[in-house]
Amino acid sequence: ENILIINVLKVISLSENGGISKGELINLDTNKLKAKWKDAIKNIDNAYNRVNEIYGAFKQKYIPIEPMILPLAALLLHVGKGQDSKFKKIDRWYWNACFCGRYSQAANTRSESDVAKMFEWISSDKDQDILDFFNSYDINQIDFDNIKKYSYLHRTIICLLIKSGCKDFKT
Prior knowledge:
The protein is mainly alpha-helical. Helices cover 57% and strands 0% of the residues.
């Protein structure tokens, strides 16, 4: 998988400044860039791996909403390793964002907003939801008969089926 330089810059900027506008990318501190560059690349790769191995997107085309990779990478960069309670919060953010289609529009703005709030939530001992879009959908209201193939909702459901152990969609 090729990682675009702009995405590395965005992950660093999200984790350092909380923003990914052109102005913020241009004004990134070169010392921070040098210090975070390899970790940002590693965490973009970790985000793709997590989406594949933990969230069930066995092929790139099944990633529910690909623009979520960058905020996910920034969150993984922030958390580091071995902190299960923090990963549970990231997982909660991920699945809620997938089900409500949060990143299907205005992904940069949502990334900035969510990452700032998630950093706060991850750093706290609070277990309650902090993001206003959590539970903004009612799974009982989803019309499963009319979900368009390869829509974000279709891909989200495919990932959940895979995550739950489904191996064959035909039988």
